[in-house]
Amino acid sequence: MNHGIDATRMFAGQFIQSVDLKVSSPTKEAIHTQMLKAWVFPPMLSLAEAQVALFQMGIKVGAQNVHFEEKGAFTGEISVPMIKDLHIYLTLVGHSERRQYFGETNLTALKRADSHLKQGCKVVYCIGESKDERLADRTNEILKQQLDEGLNQEMGEALEDQRLVLAYEPVWAIGTGLTASPAQAEDAHHFIRQYIENRYGKKSSMKAVILYGGSVTTENFKALLECPNVDGGLVGGASLNPDSYAKLLEIAGSALRQS
Ligand code: PGA
Q: Could you give the C-alpha distances from 71 to 43, 44, 49, 74, 230, in angstroms and in order?
């Protein structure tokens, strides 16, 4: 719930300047050719503004919360056909804040992801353990449960062709300033990739994209991206500032060139 329409317009204006100053030509080129995928998920009211302002830079816009039904009496909800009217084909599913405050469960996240994929969207699907679960050494058990209950058999193909992207977001790290260490992130990402291999096979696991989210900053992003199983970031706070978002893109661009 950051950046309404005016703030999004200002963000985009400053971001274009920051990109000019802070993002190298190879990174800009990589964003344009989609070698480096740069996405933003503004609030629903700001989708159109963000789409218009960021389109020319190659930045794709996605929606934070989209219903699984295509239409009907679901007061307050928006649907895939509605975001498609804005030429938006990207959704976020299962974010811990949706789980914590708005009743999202593994089952509703599954229904959303399944329906969005079938309607032709790309989906970024979040999972992650709480602080108590980590302290009780239940991280892998919780991740397994979220994946067992939250993905279906058909999703192996979507993972393989990267229409379904997973984001590991330890709940204790989101918005808290407590980032998972690269070793903690790598352990969880490795577990998730192994899970994909066991359930869907080697090809899906090798091609699957797994993002890390939780207090990513311009200081820690590089080290996180160096982890073999971390393919990118899902960034909250540090993406709200146009300068810092531009720097994050440059860090991702140089990591891509070194890989
Ligand atoms: P954060 O948020 O980067 O501010 O921790 C991450 C998220 O909300 O997904």
A: 20, 17, 23, 8, 36
